Amino acid sequence: MVEKPAQMTLFGVPATVTEVAADATLPPAVANGPLSAANELPAAASPDILVPGQEGFFGVRATRAEALASLAARARECRRCGLREGCRGVVFGEGDPDSGIVFLGEAPGAVEDELGRPFVGQAGQLLDRILLAVGFRREQVYITNTALCRPPGNRAPLPEETAACRPWFEERLAVLQPSIIVCLGASAGRNLLGPEFGITRDRGRWYSFGQAKLMATFHPAALLRDPAKKRPVWEDLKAVRAEWTRFRSEPEAARSGGRPIPPGN
Ligand code: SF4
């Protein structure tokens, strides 16, 4: 087991990033802690935030989808970095919030910005085919990006832009509570695993990230440029699919994440 230094916070506390064996038992949940000043969103302390399973104003428990919709509505008003000025709007994410698995890219591109949906351009269509090849329908998983607004000219988000968007990422994870996170590409991998992460060297391995197991693989755009990368992505996502199947077959009480939300009442 290889310990890597914590590079970011998860739900407001330092995340321990540890490489683990595929069949390893996950570490105990990371305890919630106060948001650091750098991560603090004014709304994070707002009583308006919907938390899955928590009773709201009318005594109705919020579902995960409702909590996510509430978060998306707030994110769409965000102006925390300059990216929002140069794009059409926030591309929040889509898919099944109860799936227990999140696919995470870098940032929306031109097509995504125009349609307001993640991974719907050429690379996104390839991702759909890759997902199908390992037995996932796109709508079965949750797909999003580390930066929610399109950088101009499809450049990579700057570190300060990614940092500005990080609280939204942490809040999404807090709502989604995934058991599996799949980083698509080097940028998403570095964001979660630290600057020393290298996609060619470190893809295809399991890491623990808070409550979730995490694997990084090549971004579908890289496959469009270099079809030789299809084979390793196929191997990586087969392992992801097997882990997801194992997670789904476990008794609910034994799952480390992706916990079901109490039904609304
Ligand atoms: S990229 Fe993120 S932080 Fe920047 S404006 Fe868009 S939502 Fe806000």
Briefly summarize what is shown:
This protein is an alpha/beta fold and 265 residues long.
Task: From the structure above, extract its key features.
binds iron/sulfur cluster, 10 strands, 265 residues, Uracil-DNA Glycosylase, subunit E, alpha/beta, 8 helices, globular, single chain, disordered C terminus
Describe the structure.
With 265 residues, this protein is an alpha/beta fold. The protein has a single domain, classed as Uracil-DNA Glycosylase, subunit E (3-Layer(aba) Sandwich). The protein is built from 8 helices and 10 strands. Strands 1-4-9-10-8-6-7-5 form an 8-stranded mixed β-sheet, with helices on both faces. The longest helix is centred in the last third of the chain and has 20 residues. 42% of the residues are buried. The N terminus and C terminus are likely disordered. The site of iron/sulfur cluster has 15 residues, from helix 4.
